[in-house]
Every structure is written in C-alpha cells, then in structure tokens.
TrEMBL record:
It comes from Methanoliparum thermophilum. GO terms for cellular component: membrane. The chain crosses the membrane at residues 222-243. It is an enzyme of class 7 (translocase). This is Tetrahydromethanopterin S-methyltransferase subunit A. The keyword Transmembrane helix applies. Keywords: Cell membrane, Cobalt, Membrane, Methanogenesis, Methyltransferase, One-carbon metabolism, Transferase, Translocase, Transmembrane, Transmembrane helix. Residues 187-240 form the Tetrahydromethanopterin S-methyltransferase F subunit domain.
Amino acid sequence: MVEKKDVPPEWPPVSGEYAIGDPKNPVVVSSLGTYFDDKKVLGFGASMVGPTKTENIGLEKIIANTISNPNIRFLILAGTEVPGHLTGNSMLALAEYGVDPNSKKIINAKGAIPFIENAPIEAVERFREQVEVIDMIGTEDLSKIGAKIKELMERDPGAFPEDPIIIKLGAETEEKEEAELPLAMPTKPVMDTLNKAIESIQYKSQLIVRDQKLTSGLSNNAILGILTGIILAIIISLPLILLR
C-alpha cells in the first residue's frame, strides 16, 4: 500500500464546474472544452473531473485544487481544445517550461492570454513537482480515458511528501473567467443555442408561409424555396457569429 495523506477539510479550496470523487485517488481529469459523463469518469477512479475553459484562471484553479491535496499525482488532459484559449496546450507548456517570474506568462504557451497572475510562482513550481501531466488531448472515448486512469492508479507513487498548500483565488477571478469565455464557447452550449435558434426560425417560417398563402399569388414551392435558402444561410453562419 502506498502512503496517503489526510485531505484538508476545505478541499477543494476553489469552486468550479467539476465533480468530486475519492480525494485520495491520484488522478484528476480535465476535459478541456468537452463535457464528459462525470459519474462514469469518477467511477473509473478519478478524484476530480471537469472542463477547463481558460488558459489563465482555469489553469490557476487546477493548480490551487491540486497542490492542496498531496494525494493527486496525475492530471489527464482529454477532450477537445477550446479554440483560441488552447488550455490543454497551455497546461502542457506550464508543466514542461513553467512560468516567467517577471511577466507571469506561461513559457511557450500558444493560448491567447496564458498568464498565471493569481497563483504565486511557488505554487506553480509545487504543482510541477507534484503532478505528471498526461496528454490525451482530442480523446473523448471514455473507455480509453478509463483505461488510462486505471493504469495511472496502478503506478501511484503515493502522496507527495510535502504538506498541502492552500491558495484561494477569490470571487474576482471567477468573474474574470466568465468574462473571458466569449472568445470561444464549448461544444454543448453552442449546440444548445443553435438548436433553439433553428426551432425559432422554423416556427417563424411557418407563420410567413401561412401569411403569404393568404396575401400573395406566389406558389407554395417558390415561397418554401426562398425560405429554405434563408434558413440554410442563417444555420451555416450562426456558429461563426456565436464564436466571435
């Protein structure tokens, strides 16, 4: 049996859009811009799972919630990258190269704003010492992710030998992260918005067709042809509008 440490009662110290499993398990899963079935991932043995949407506040939350629990030794990056933010790439760069102590920029990160401003350099370095980052970016197959979790649990080195470090980012960082999200939206919210827009367009189109039948001599086929073209144009352009 590997050595484990008691988890601080306030763990995890930073709130977020994640689900919690057994805090003594060594693996955390970030789904980046994808939304996984949390229960399944936790069932494989992950101690925490959730999306990471931004390459600054999002990564700071992972750092804070990891170094406050010495039992966490692995971070799996899976799911689809958030366009523009590139949180997975930024985390890989942080793990390999660290953060410039003067500019606070993650060295060699390709994200839009890869700056760690709310977590001290000491916290970043502790994270880099404590955690091995596993690159599964682009993988959404839960069976593959589950197999990797089990593999990592088998080579669990035990709790990191130093005490937990508690840092709290505060409400201000929560608001800042929400403000940054329009740069790129995760797939699920975009599709929900798109589906609602399509339903609204279809309903309004039916009303227009009904009115046209009463007031115009145009054939039904001509009217429907025009409306179909308009709807298709809107559907094609709507994701681009939403992602601006």
